[in-house]
Design brief:
The chain has 752 residues and is mainly α. Helices cover 56% and strands 2% of the residues. It comes from Echinops telfairi.
Length: 752
C-alpha cells in the first residue's frame, strides 16, 4: 500500500468563515452551559429549602448540614423531575397549611431542633454555620415561578444592611437550537444540491465574463489611485488583495493583471527622492511652525490695537526683527501690521517708536535686510514738520496772572471771574493736549529726521544694495520736507547714481522725481540748473513700451507734472515743444491707459504753454529741420514739425483715446462740441492712467455687444453697390443674353 502523503493546503476564504462560525457557536454553547449550571445550583438550593419545610411539618427535623462536617450515611437524592412533582398546596389539609403560614412568620423556628428544650430566642453565636444563617432569614412561599436573580452590592442605612438584587434575563435556548438546526439543515441542503455541469463553450463564456469584470474592477481602482493617490491610498490595499484570487478559472490571469497594474502605479506615484525619517530639528520645526505663526499674528494684532499701552514698546522690539524673517509669510504679516499702525497713527508717538527700532536694526545688520522693511516708511502720515523760526516769531506760552498781580489790578468781582476763566482754560488745554498741533509737529519732525538719516546712510555706504529702490522712492515722497542745507549734496549724489548706469530704468526715474521734488519746494530759492535731469528724462522716454515697462508710465507722468507744469516759469518754449512732440510719438506704442495719460499730459502742457499750438499747423516756424534723434530738447528744432501722430490716434480702437486725440486736434478747447466731459477733464493724468488700467485683462470701458436681431435690414448681395453701377450691370447682362440666345429651331430643321 502506498503511504498517504500529508498535503498541507492553504485554507480558503469560505473555510475561514466557517471556522469563525464554529468558534462563535462554541462560545454560545459555553455560555448556555454556564447558565444551566447556575440554574441547577439554584434548583438544588430550592430542594433543600422544601425538604426543611417538610421535615418541620412532619416534626422530623433533619439537619441540612452537619456543622462538624459529618453527613448521615444515607441521603435520599431526588432528580429535578421528582422535585417538580411535589405535593401541591391545594391537596394539603387546612391545619397543615395554617401551620406552614405560621412557620413562615417565625424565622427562627426552621433553624432549631424541635426535640430540644432550648428557648427560641437565644443569643447569637459567633461561629454559626452558613446554612444556619441562611435558614434564619424570613421567607415567603412562592406563588409564581421563580426567576434567576443577580445579587448586587448591598445598601446600608439606619436599620442595617439591605441586600439588592436584579432579575437576570433568561435566553430561550430552545429557539436558538431551532435556528441552529435550520441553518445546518440549509447548509446540508446546499451541499447536497449538485452543481450543474457546463459545456466547454458555456465554461469559456463564463470565464470571459468573470475576467472582464475583474479587469474593469482593476481599471477603476488604478484610475482612482492615479487621480488622487493621497486620498485613495486605501484602494491600493484593495488592489493588492486581488493577488490572492481564489477562483481557479481566472486566478492566474487576474494575478498577472494585478502585478502589471501595481508596477505601473508604483512607477507613477513613487516620489523621485529617497524617503528618510525626520531629524529632531525638523520635527521640532514642523511642530512649532504653526504655533509660531499664531503667536506672531497675535502680537501683530496687539501692536495695532494697543498703541497707547505701557508695554507697546516691548511688542515693537519683538515685531521689528520678525519683519526680516526668512519665512515670507511671517515677514509679510509683520510688515503689514507696521503699515497699518503707521496709517492709523494720527499723533505719531507709536510711529516714532517703530522708526527708532527699525533704524537701529538696519544699521546693526549692516543694511542687509529685506527691502520691505524700508517700504513701510511710505505709509507714514507726515505732511508737515517744524520749520526753524526766529526767536521773535516764536509764540511764548500764555502765562497766568499771579495772586499779587490780580490783587493790584483787578477788583474782587473781576478776580472771581478771572479765576473761573483760567480754570476753564486749563481744562480745555488738558482736553486738547492729546491732539496738540505743536506736539504732533515735534513728533513728526523727530520721526522724519530718523528716516532721512537711514536713507542717507544707505546712499553713502550701500549704493548697490537692493534697498536703493526703496530709498529713492521714499526720498521722492518726502523730498519736499528735506532741510535746505542738504539740497546740493543730495542732487550731486542723485546725478552720480544716474550717470553710473548701475540703476534700472525705474530707479533712475525715482532719482529724477526726487530731484524735482526737492527743487519744487524750498529749492526754488536756490540757483540750481536741473538741465541734466531734463535731458536724461527726454532721452529715456522711448524705453517705455507696451510690455514690462508700461508700469513706469505712471512715474513719468508724475515727473512731467513736477518738471514742466509746476516749474512753468523756468521752462522754455523750445523744451515744452520737444516734450509734447516726443510724448505724442510715445503714445503710439504703449497700452491704451498709458496713451490716455500721455494725451492728458499734452493737453495740460498746451494749456500751460499756449504758443505750443503751432504744432497743429503744417507750416514750419523759423529755420532748421526737426531732429527727432537728438537727445537735447533745447536744440532739436521741435517748432518745425507737426503732431501727425494725433491723426493716427484718432483711429485708435479705444474710444477714450479717440476722444482725446480729436480734442487735441481741435486745439484742446474748454468749451464747444470738441470739449471734454467733466469726468475726463477734471482728472489728472495719473488718475486716468489708473482708471483705464487693463491689469485685469478686460477692456475699460467694456466693448458693446453686437445686436444681430434685425437681420432683415442687413445689406446683402448687390445692395453694397452703387445704384448707377447696378443699372449698368443689368443692362449689359441683358444685351449679352439676347445676343447669344441659342436658336434650337435650326438644329431641329436640319435634323429632319
Amino acid at each position: 500500500m502506498k503511504a498517504r502523503r500529508n498535503k498541507k493546503q492553504v485554507p480558503s476564504f469560505r473555510k475561514l468563515i466557517r471556522t469563525s462560525k464554529v468558534k462563535l457557536e462554541n462560545k454560545l454553547k459555553n455560555k448556555q452551559f454556564k447558565q444551566q449550571s447556575t440554574l441547577k445550583k439554584y434548583r438544588k438550593e430550592q430542594r433543600k429549602l422544601r425538604q426543611a419545610v417538610r421535615d418541620a411539618v412532619s416534626k422530623k427535623p433533619v439537619p441540612l448540614e452537619d456543622p462538624k462536617g459529618k453527613r448521615p450515611g444515607k441521603r435520599i437524592e431526588r432528580d429535578e423531575e421528582e422535585e417538580e412533582e411535589a405535593l401541591p398546596l391545594d391537596m394539603m389539609d387546612e391545619d397543615d397549611l395554617q401551620l406552614m403560614k405560621d412557620l413562615g412568620q417565625r424565622a427562627s423556628f426552621l433553624t432549631r431542633d424541635l426535640s430540644s428544650s432550648e428557648p427560641a430566642h437565644v443569643k447569637k453565636r459567633k461561629h454559626e454555620s452558613i446554612i444556619e444563617k441562611y435558614e434564619k432569614t424570613p421567607r415567603t412561599l412562592p406563588s409564581a415561578p421563580e426567576k434567576e436573580l443577580i445579587h448586587l452590592l448591598p445598601i446600608k442605612d439606619k436599620s442595617g444592611i439591605i441586600p439588592q438584587t436584579r432579575e437576570k434575563p433568561v435566553i430561550d435556548s430552545s429557539k436558538e437550537e431551532e435556528d441552529q438546526e435550520d441553518e445546518t439543515g440549509q447548509e446540508e441542503e446546499m451541499i447536497q444540491d449538485p452543481i450543474p455541469e457546463l459545456t466547454i463553450e458555456e465554461h469559456l463564456r463564463e470565464r470571459t465574463k468573470k475576467l472582464q469584470e475583474k479587469k474593469m474592477h482593476i481599471a477603476a481602482l488604478a484610475a482612482a489611485i492615479l487621480s488622487d493617490p493621497e486620498s485613495n491610498i486605501k484602494k491600493l490595499k484593495e488592489l493588492r488583495s486581488m493577488l490572492v484570487e481564489q477562483d481557479p478559472d481566472v486566478a492566474v490571469t487576474v494575478r498577472k493583471l494585478v502585478v502589471i497594474s501595481l508596477m505601473e502605479l508604483f512607477k507613477d506615484i513613487t516620489p523621485s527622492y529617497k524617503i528618510r525619517p525626520l531629524t529632531e530639528a525638523e520635527k521640532s520645526t514642523k511642530a512649532y511652525k504653526g504655533l509660531a505663526e499664531v503667536a506672531v499674528k497675535s502680537l501683530c494684532e496687539l501692536l495695532v490695537a494697543l498703541p497707547h499701552f505701557n508695554f507697546h514698546n516691548n511688542i515693537i522690539v519683538l515685531i521689528v526683527p520678525l519683519m526680516n524673517d526668512m519665512s515670507k509669510s511671517i515677514s509679510d504679516m509683520c510688515c503689514e501690521a507696521v503699515k497699518k499702525l503707521f496709517k492709523q497713527d494720527k499723533l505719531g508717538q507709536a510711529s516714532l517708536g517703530v522708526i527708532k527700532v527699525i533704524s537701529g536694526f538696519v544699521k546693526g545688520r549692516n543694511y542687509d535686510v529685506r527691502p520691505e522693511m524700508l517700504k513701510t516708511f511710505l505709509c507714514l502720515r507726515i505732511k508737515e514738520v517744524e520749520v526753524k523760526k526766529d526767536t521773535e516769531d516764536i509764540n511764548k506760552p500764555k502765562r497766568f496772572m499771579t495772586f499779587k498781580e490780580k490783587r493790584k489790578t483787578l477788583s474782587r468781582m473781576q478776580r472771581k471771574w478771572k479765576k473761573a476763566e483760567e480754570k476753564l482754560e486749563r481744562e480745555l488745554r488738558e482736553a486738547e493736549a492729546s491732539e496738540s498741533t505743536e506736539r504732533r509737529l515735534r513728533l513728526h519732525t523727530e520721526t522724519l529726521n530718523i528716516v532721512f538719516v537711514t536713507y542717507f546712510r544707505i546712499l553713502k555706504k550701500a549704493q548697490r544694495s537692493p534697498l536703493l529702490p526703496a530709498v529713492l522712492e521714499g526720498l521722492a515722497k518726502f523730498a519736499h520736507l528735506i532741510n535746505v542745507e542738504f539740497f546740493d549734496d543730495i542732487l550731486v549724489v542723485l546725478h552720480t547714481l544716474i550717470e553710473s548706469g548701475d540703476l534700472s530704468y525705474r530707479e533712475s526715474l525715482h532719482c529724477v522725481q526726487t530731484a524735482f521734488h526737492i527743487l519744487s519746494g524750498q529749492g526754488d530759492v536756490l540757483n540750481i540748473d536741473p538741465m541734466k535731469f531734463y535731458t536724461h528724462l527726454y532721452k529715456t522716454l522711448f524705453k517705455l513700451h507696451a510690455g514690462a515697462t508700461n508700469s513706469g508710465v505712471e512715474i513719468v507722468l508724475q515727473c512731467l507734472d513736477v518738471m514742466l507744469t509746476k516749474r512753468r516759469k523756468q521752462v522754455s518754449q523750445q523744451r515744452a515743444l520737444a516734450f509734447i512732440k516726443r510724448l505724442s510719438t510715445l503714445a503710439l506704442h504703449v497700452l491704451p491707459n498709458a496713451s490716455i495719460g500721455i494725451l492728458a499730459t499734452n493737453r495740460v502742457l498746451m494749456h500751460t504753454f499756449p504758443k505750443t499750438d503751432l504744432l497743429l499747423d503744417n507750416e514750419s516756424q523759423g529755420s532748421g529741420v526737426f531732429l527727432p534723434e537728438l537727445d537735447e530738447p533745447e536744440y532739436c528744432n521741435a517748432q518745425n514739425t507737426a503732431l501727425w501722430e494725433l491723426h493716427a490716434l484718432r483711429r485708435h480702437y479705444h474710444p477714450i483715446v479717440k476722444i482725446f486725440a480729436a480734442h487735441l486736434i481741435a486745439g484742446a478747447p474748454s468749451e464747444g462740441s470738441q470739449a471734454l466731459k467733466p469726468d475726463l477733464s477734471r482728472r489728472t493724468a495719473a488718475e486716468l492712467f489708473e482708471t483705464y488700467c487693463m491689469a485685469a485683462m478686460t477692456f475699460n470701458p467694456p466693448v458693446e455687444s453686437f445686436n444681430s436681431k434685425r437681420k432683415d435690414k442687413d445689406l446683402q448681395g448687390d445692395s453694397f453697390l452703387n445704384e448707377d453701377l447696378n443699372e449698368l450691370i443689368k443692362r449689359h447682362c441683358g444685351e449679352a443674353a439676347a445676343q447669344f440666345l441659342p436658336d434650337f429651331t435650326k438644329c431641329w430643321g436640319t435634323s429632319r
